[in-house]
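hiii, so i know i said id send this last week but things got crazy w the move. better late than never?? heres the sequnce for the chain we talked about at the cafe, plus the structure i predicted for it. fair warning i was half asleep when i ran it
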Amino acid sequence: MKLIAIPLCLMLGLVIAAGPANTPTAARVVNDASPTAQTGTPCGRFGTTDDPPAKEWERTLTTTYAVGVTPVQDTLMWVSCGESELRIYVFNIKDPARPLIDSFPETGGPTGWGIRDMAWKASTNEVFAGFDNQRFHVYNATTRVPNRTYTVSGYAGTVRGFGYDPVQDSCWTCDFDSSPMTKFSIAGANGHEVKPAAGMRYSYGIARSRLQNCFWVTQAGTAGSSPIYKMDTDYAWVDSFNPADWDLGGGCEMWRDTFLLAVEQSASGPDAVWCFKFGIASHDVGVKAIVAPSSGINPGPVSPEALVKNFGANAESGIPVTCWIDSGATRVYSASTTLPGPLEAGDEARVTFAPDWNPGPAGARYDVTMFTALGGDVEVHDDTAIGTTTVTGAVFADTIHVHSAASPPTIDGIIAPDEWLASIMYDVSDLAGRGGTPQPAGSSIAYFLYDSAFVYLAMDCPNRTTRVDWDQFGPYMDEDRNGIWSIDSSEGNHWVEYVGGDSVIYCALLSTLPDTWTMGVAPGATGASSLSSGHLQFEASIPIGAARWEYNINPGDTVGYFQYTSFDTNSSYVGWWPQSLTTSQWSYPRYYGPMVFDTIIPGVEDRSPKPLFALYKASPSIVRDQACISYYVGRQANVELAVYDATGSLVKTLVTGEAAPGERTVIWNRTDNGGKRAAAGTYFYRLTVDDRSVSGKAIVLQ
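okay and structure toks below
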């Protein structure tokens, strides 16, 4: 039985957009932890409530009780149903006349009216689907299986309306007049009220419109009197419309930024999905995305790049585009250029800014703002793209180099910087989507060290703020690098995993049963995970030896290596190395990448058990774009690390000044002290500690 509610009358505060045209909005992305933070400027309004968007099409449904709707993968439309069905139906969204494609059951919690409102996250190909008791599923949109289920914090109702914003990567929900409109993270955390329950009475669906910088909210009042409301980003009602023949509003969601899909719950006939089309502005150009810098970058020059789109109806030329990069309140980079065009309606173009930007050291964080300033632009709210970037210090490489550890790290799941200074930081994020959905840079950062007793591994997952059973990473090692697994040896894999606790599992091929692998807890190995940093981190130590649960390696060895990082029982991969290896090749070590256990260039000995200092070989020693150079200092000392050409002339000073004891890694980005790219040839890197030196050699290729 459909809900019939008391009619609602709302006084609409008509708020006119404020601020100068063709400038970026001053407010930044909302911090979910702050209930008072806002974003954007108030949106505009219709001329009158009689000027609604046009209905593009209507899809009549034959289901018992339609509840929610969302576009999926651009070509599909999911419609959820409750009561006796509890199913989600899949339609071809581009062809309203095409029959039903498929359906699947709603499992794992939904009851009664089942899955309510839904929203699709394109970047991870996931569908958020709300239901009873503050909960929502996160479906894999391809397998249609819930990857995770979250409970919204700071909220006490059904997750009925569900809005999602890909820019803020945040969500909103409401439940008629029993709960406030609440904003929360995609993991259900940091929930806080943004509009009181009384202000959301009879609201059923929420859709966040990025292009219009507003929310659309469907109402379930009485038949024929359930308006669709427009709400600005300050959560004030600014307009509404009541389509002819529209009964009760169910779930709703935006499609392609231009269309609003909304479920009509009919009081007398079959339910339907309506598609409303918003008008396209005559002149409207904006920055669709920040291409570079990405969310995680390496030290060294970056060429800022924007993706500009013509959202309007007319071709445009001579489009001014600007890039600002800020460190806190200080602007560290500003550049403008003009996109000559013509840029046809709907087309996109990349714009590169000059000169290059030189970020600070690893750990530095910056705000990036890119915007257009087209004269006559009538939709200034989509001019601007805002993001952040962090200098991770991690490198992308086709060879992994493992340095020796001056002292072993503590295996407690906390990646303390002073414990892993000797390791190169490798970005092993699944950029190509080899394990599934492509992941952004900085999603999975790996560390490697070794000594005479153990190989040490660590994995940092900055975007993962929770820990559940089967979170893990798996190193696979072909120790003799012959492309096949050796029987009864430690060749195989270790799983560093969390299943109600931390463990290291090994898997080796038995000689007695050649077709059978044995599996068990690796004796002497230690694994630990932690959320102490605010996100998920793993550490592990695996013994060096001859047993099948140990690694049989020596300094100078090159082995075949593969590694993944995945979450939960559905193996949601975020890490994958080597990037070239496909899912069909992971079990064949002939496709693995090279891992080198480096030796060191001896430094000067003093009377202490450890050397006064030592220099590691550059990684890689044959350089195309950049090389990592690591060194060790046994006590407080004056240190200089510099690169010289074959004639002995100074090329680049990498380190100079007093240094504390420990191991460190710096990156030479193949530039000289003037920022120019070094030519091909032979170069020497020299470590000088208190007037005593040791050198290594690197070959630079074109």
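btw The chain is about 0% helix and 45% strand. thought thatd interest u
miss u guys!!
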